[in-house]
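Researcher: Let's try something more involved. This one mixes different molecule types, so please make sure each is placed in the same coordinate frame as the others.
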Amino acid sequence: MDNYVRIFDTTLRDGEQSPGATMTSAEKLEVARALARLGVDVIEAGFPAASPDDLEAVRRIAVEVGALRAMRADSPAQRPPIICGLARASKKDIDKAWEAVQHAARPRIHTFLATSEIHMHYKLKMDREQVLERVIEMVSYARGLCDDVEFSPEDAGRSDPQFLYLVLGEAIKAGATTLNIPDTVGYTTPDEFGALIAGIIQNTPGVENCIVSVHCHDDLGLATANTLAGIQAGARQAEVTVNGIGERAGNTSLEEVVMALNTRRPVFNLVTGIDTTQIMRVSKLVSNYTGIVVQPNKAIVGANAFAHEAGIHQDGMLKHQQTYEIMRPEAVGVTQTHLVLGKHSGRHAFKVRLNELGYELSEADLDKAFDRFKHLADKKKTITDADLEALVADEFYQPREVFTLDGLQVVCGTMGMPTATVRLRGPDGSTHTQACIGTGPVDATYKAIDAIIQAPNTLLEFSVHAVTEGIDALGEVTVRVESRNGHYSFDTQTETDRTRTFGGHGADTDIIVASAKAYLSALNKLLVASNRAGPAETPAFVAHLQTA
Amino acid sequence: MDNYVRIFDTTLRDGEQSPGATMTSAEKLEVARALARLGVDVIEAGFPAASPDDLEAVRRIAVEVGALRAMRADSPAQRPPIICGLARASKKDIDKAWEAVQHAARPRIHTFLATSEIHMHYKLKMDREQVLERVIEMVSYARGLCDDVEFSPEDAGRSDPQFLYLVLGEAIKAGATTLNIPDTVGYTTPDEFGALIAGIIQNTPGVENCIVSVHCHDDLGLATANTLAGIQAGARQAEVTVNGIGERAGNTSLEEVVMALNTRRPVFNLVTGIDTTQIMRVSKLVSNYTGIVVQPNKAIVGANAFAHEAGIHQDGMLKHQQTYEIMRPEAVGVTQTHLVLGKHSGRHAFKVRLNELGYELSEADLDKAFDRFKHLADKKKTITDADLEALVADEFYQPREVFTLDGLQVVCGTMGMPTATVRLRGPDGSTHTQACIGTGPVDATYKAIDAIIQAPNTLLEFSVHAVTEGIDALGEVTVRVESRNGHYSFDTQTETDRTRTFGGHGADTDIIVASAKAYLSALNKLLVASNRAGPAETPAFVAHLQTA
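Model: All components are placed in one shared frame. Result:
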């Protein structure tokens, strides 16, 4: 058995399924580019059958990240990552997946069907024989389209092992090249999960010609340990997400699995293709785009993970790093030199730094970004990488703009009657101004925006954090809203609709302005979705859109 | 071997050592009360030798939570929790620990000394013989004071097992009743850590009369798995923190270990004394007081951990809960009924709800809290439990107030020149007013406060979140500042000074007012610390304090 563990990243599929983690197509593409630079072997780019938008997002990633011509000249990788699309075990889903991924140099179709008694009985309403037949039929169908087919027996962690061996053996005969074993509900212990993988490798006919993969969830805090136990039992692909985002308690963290294998190489004797120095950057990118914060005590990528060193008085233990440090911060891309640009930095220095951070902007976009940078530099003494990333995200990775913020004026304080005056520019170019009183400046601002846009919604989450240290820092606001107009999205796993939520982010040195931008960004996503949903569900204001 | 696993909570000691997690004495006491209600067996209340404040905080917990008379009449527990104080292996430290914990009905002294080559050589500058001698001497000394003595060989995970058996055997002879095995740097895998514990139980003379304990760190994301592996190998005490807070990537999460043992009882066949329905409440309390956020995808206590259910369209899979749910949300105290009080609720309903939440206020404090509640109810339609907790925390668990916010007026927006006017009341009762311009409303407010207080500091962290859903929600602001006046605190482990950071929080429907309160709360902690540090380090303004 080789000692190379393939990293299969499903941030854009299972991760994006977290409540509120919805990303725009542009954001997904940027994350896919970052994952390619990170060196993941497989990018699961989405679930194309979910909606035309999802299909299009996967197709763009296949074309722009998965194609040979998308390779950067200076990339250390020999070839672009495999681009994978998820499909339920149905011809329609598999066709959609193929339609999206076929443009990649190395496309993969990933299909799944549940094999646990509880899922077969309650969800699929199928018996064992029917499940087996469907698996054979659909894996064959997928293999007819694509040479690289992954099959997952859903809820494998709670399936009868004998039935599992049978199903997997038939999937191999039907053409599956990767067998992924998911602990769908995060129920197993490392011993159990390791034994499950060992059992599969020992008892499944033909398994020696396949890659066995593991896919764990963190409901009991054991995802990383279970994944490592599966790998030690012989799995050679790990399905993970950046920051461990995903349904409920999330998926296995990419960074934890990779750094455990790296840090304890003599124990595991296994390698991955990951450039670990990119980890921190990708972590921040995903956190910014999904609005899912990373807690300070998160392993590897938390703000405090390496704080021991930084916080200690210089005369202290720096000379004996290993006393309390098992990894070097630099190994995961934590750098101490945050201060890079100031108000006297020129356009060239700005462009070089953006390129170093992995952003490639067109000349026109660069001009726009440089303009904002100069504005920021007037207010803020030093501009850090985090500021630059917030600025680029705020400027370029926003949903299609329906309404834009044209002006905002706020009065608030302890004297009561916080008041906001908002001026928005609509899709037809007209401006609308409203003043409202609220319980605070954000409430007043949002009420004024609501008075103009009239898109009924509930604010589920509102958070602000300072992008960098210092009181003159950029504030970044993340909001999540739920439509009250009956928008549902389809959940692959449970095959049910769920209320759709929309996330938005905005950055500004004025947190009330940033709050307004974030709210508008979420509402713009909601408006675009409303428009697609058709006239019956369309609120009055979308008339603007249709005439625009 | 019995099947009862003791839960040793070190949130107040190892958890509080996280950068910026500093709690006030009142906050520590409230957390200790919550831990007692949760049913933990041991509360490690602090490190008394660190400072007179730390000693006093531990003593208060021993008196008010650990004494027999502190038991609530309706408590299901038979006796109060053990109150434990940490001490390095020195008489001075052990004396201080005893001074603090002796007031408890069941006091414990916990002493430690490193046994790994790297720590003995670089940190202790002692050889094996010297370490062994010191352990015998200090465990005996502690046992002379207290019947319950815990000993930890620091960095056991990287120690020579043979030397470890020898040291532990001698510690038992010297009177240790609990042997705690820490993986100090979070370096081991579950297999290794389980084998370490099995080896200790097999090879340490006299171990059958002791409780073996495990203490893991999450640097590689394996703390929970390592802890469970140690328990399966025979350990019967787990050292944990709420939300897994602690140095770097933090300690093992209490909630993950307890819920893994509960959810998979047939596998582990072990029980704890924890009332799991209290988990969510304690999690929120600790997050509020330390300012350390819990990420939405955190196992058990993250906002999304049970969101699968809530987010799904009602007609969906509710009737087959087990399809995707391995724990019931109610089991950890997640309740669906958030809406409890409104503007017409009376003082009695308010008091009853606070009692149900575990708060016991004096009549005078209740009047104050009710007054604020009425104010809030005027602005906000429904008041939830989270609002009540934020309100109580904001009103009663604040540092000693040096400066208070007397008035604030802010103008901001896209037109530029954000301006704040701040009026503070000083310790001598005088008021001070300043107006400042900033890069945003928070910056302007903080600059105005700085102009009055003149306590040089760097703002390290600033975050806001909405306490509940809805745009009229209370905003809660958490800040962390670092003194630029040379305040250091002593780090037990590394025996070095670290720059001291001070956290503050504030809640208000106006997030700029909440930001001002949070900053003042952090600065007040800093001012009190400055005053203690003696005149040489004391900035000019503290003259106020000395004459007050």
